[in-house]
Specification:
alpha+beta; 227 residues
């Protein structure tokens, strides 16, 4: 699945689900007769039902679309990684799994959470997209995930999971960097990843210890959290 496929999935879901919140709700002309009772669309049963249908669809889409390819051409000398931070930990994720980096948006919780990693849903171009906690998926120490005092700008990563796009909030994005394959191979051989979930290895970058994530294992964990 490439980025265009993922965006098509998002727009297809937007059309398949009656997004009344964008027409007559808080993002529309506010003519919905239920608004006076619920104050905001996220408190309405219609909104919650739409979110539940979206999560059910991830399992179905996984079968039709297959998994994100993990193949790498043998003559590639560098690999592009997106560098981002969660708390005090810096991580790197292969850019082939990334659809885009978006500004932070409101995350709307669901009445019946399916997993501890599922934060809720976020509105991406009018479509509801599942929002997951990488802190929970990676098993990070929540006590150590406080944002440092320096001025930072949190972001949301939209990634191409096996069943469709998902959103993950992060504390900071450094950017996309090309890393020498030999550096990555050395990190994989070092064995430092043994104690970390979904991790290829740990390498030094810009004076930081960077945890290089195994995207296939991570995306499989994402799928399990949604089904």
């Amino acid at each position: 699945m490439n980025a265009s496929d993922t965006l098509s999935f998002t727009h297809a879901d937007a059309q398949a689900i009656d997004d009344c919140w964008n027409r007559i709700g808080v993002h529309g002309d506010r003519s919905c007769p239920l608004l006076s009772e619920h104050i905001h669309c996220r408190n309405c049963a219609v909104y919650s039902a739409a979110a539940t249908r979206l999560l059910d669809r991830y399992a179905l889409q996984q079968e039709d679309r297959g998994q994100v390819s993990s193949s790498v051409e043998s003559d590639v000398k560098t690999r592009s990684l997106l560098m981002f931070r969660l708390g005090e930990e810096w991580l790197g994720l292969a850019t082939r799994t990334l659809v885009e980096v978006a500004p932070m948006q409101a995350i709307h919780s669901l009445p019946h959470q399916r997993s501890r990693a599922l934060l809720g849903v976020a509105n991406v171009r009018g479509a509801l997209v599942a929002c997951l906690s990488l802190v929970e998926l990676l098993g990070l120490d929540t006590a150590a995930v406080a944002v440092p005092g320096a001025r930072t700008m949190p972001r949301m990563l939209i990634i191409a999971a096996h069943g469709g796009p998902v959103v993950v909030p992060v504390d900071e994005v450094d950017g996309i960097h090309a890393i020498d394959e030999r550096v990555l191979e050395a990190a994989s051989r070092s064995g430092t990843q043994a104690s970390s979930k979904y991790t290829h290895g740990v390498l030094q970058f810009k004076g930081r210890s960077l945890r290089w994530l195994d995207e296939e294992q991570l995306l499989s964990a994402v799928t399990r959290s949604l089904t």
